[in-house]
């Protein structure tokens, strides 16, 4: 039997994380609640999110999902897409 932390990104846990992260980004960072974000849309490398917003997003991830985000994690390798963020959160739990 799978535990809830073992669900893949398409599982219910992943989906709720995904929706929470997308909602935070479009409402708090982009200030455009009607904006749709794709799971694989580049956030940092496209310039959509700047370094100040990246710190805000990292703090949100820590507070909401109870994971520690180290300074070295604040990079496009970890934070560039919603899918990468979900993978990071699941591995950090």
* Percent range of helical residues: 40-55%
Overall average pLDDT: 87
Q: Using DSSP, what is the number of strands?
A: 0
CATH superfamily: ACP-like
Note the total helix count.
Answer: 4
**Order of SSEs:** HHHH
- The percentage of residues in β strands lies in under 5%
CATH architecture: Orthogonal Bundle
Describe this structure in words.
With 93 residues, the protein is an all-alpha fold. It has one domain: Non-ribosomal Peptide Synthetase Peptidyl Carrier Protein, Chain A. The chain has helices spanning 12-29, 51-65, 76-79, 82-92. The longest helix has 18 residues, at 12-29. It is globular and about 30 Å long. The two termini are 19 Å apart.
How would you summarize what this structure contains?
It contains 4 helices and no strands.
Q: What key attributes describe this structure?
A:
Non-ribosomal Peptide Synthetase Peptidyl Carrier Protein, Chain A; mainly alpha; 4 helices; single chain; 93 residues
